Amino acid sequence: MIAAATAVRQIANPSTSLRTGLSYQTFNRRMGLWLFIFSESMVFLALLASRFYMQGTFRPAEMNQGLGLIITSILLLSSFTANRAEVAIAHGDRSSFLRLLTITIVLGVVFLAGVVTIEWPETLHYAPLSTGFGTLFFAITGLHAFHVLTGVFILALVGLHGWRGRYTAQDHWGAEGSIIYWHFVDVVWVLVYPTLYLIG
Amino acid sequence: MQHNKATLAQQGVNVLMGLAALSWIEFLVGVNRGSPFLLTVVAVIKVIVIATYFMHMGKLFKDEEGAAE
Question: Does residue A18 register a pLDDT over 70?
C-alpha cells in the first residue's frame, strides 16, 4: 500500500523524485518491471486457482514428490547464485558476476531438463492430457517452463553484455532487472510446487 | 564496501538455508498428506522471503540503481 501510494505520488508530482533521491529513469524502469510482474502473477494465480476450482484437493497418488523437491531445490539455488551475481556487479566485480550468472543459467537449464525430460513423461502415464488434473498440470508447468526458458535466454543476453563490459557498479539496470525477473520465475514455482505436488 | 559485500553474501546464505529448511518442512507435510492450510502458509512465507531479500521489494522506491548494494 505504501509502495502504491508512493508510486501514485511520484507520477502525479515528478519533483517527488528529487526529494526521495530516486531518479525518474530508475523509477520508470522499476515501475515498468513490477507492473509486468504483477500482470504475469495474475495469469499464474488464475491458473493455480483453477486447479482447486476444477479438482479440489485431488492429486494422483503417483505424483513424484521427491523429484519435485529436487527441482525446487535447483531453482532456489539458482535464485541464490543470481542474487550473488547481482551483488557482484553492484560492487564492480565483473568476473564473479559472469561466473555466478553462468552457474545460474546452468541451473536453469538443469531445472528445465528435469521437468521436460523426466517429470513430463512420468506424469503422462498417470495423468494424461485427457484428464482434468493432467490438463491443469501441463498447462501450469508448461507456462512456467516457458518462463524459465525465456529467463535463461535473457540471462544469457545479460551475460553477453556483461562479458562485453556493458555493466558497471553504477549502471547495471539490465542485469538487475533480468535477475529480478528470474527471482519471479522462482516465486511462481514456490507456489506451483505445493499446489500440484503436495496438496491432496 | 568489501564489508558490505561480505555481509550481503552472508545474508544470501542465510536466506538460502531458510528457504531450504522451509522446503523440507513443506515436503514432509506434503508426503504425510498434512494440512493444505499449513502448506499454503509455508509457501507464502517463502514468497515473502524471496520478494524481500532477493527481489528487493522493500527498496523499490528508496535508493538509486543498485538495490543489491
Answer: no
A138 CB within 8 Å of a chain B CB: no
Chain A's closest residue to B14, CA to CA, is A80
What whole-number distance in Å separates Cα of residue B49 and Cα of residue B43?
A: 10
CATH classification (class only), A2-198: mainly alpha
Cα separation, A39 vs A15, in Å, equals 28
CB pairs under 8 A between A and B: 117
B12 close to A (CB below 8 A): yes
Residue A92 three-state SS:
coil
Contact of A24 with A14, CB cutoff 8 Å: yes
Q: What is the pTM of this model?
A: 0.88
C-alpha to C-alpha distance for A200 and A188, rounded to whole angstroms: 19
Query: If pLDDT is split at 50, 70 and 90, which confidence band does A134 have?
Result: very high
- Please report the pLDDT score of residue A15 as a whole number: 47
Q: What burial letters (b/e) apply to A90-101, b meaning 16+ CB within 10 Å?
A: bbebbebbbebb
**Which amino acid does the sequence have at A37?**
I
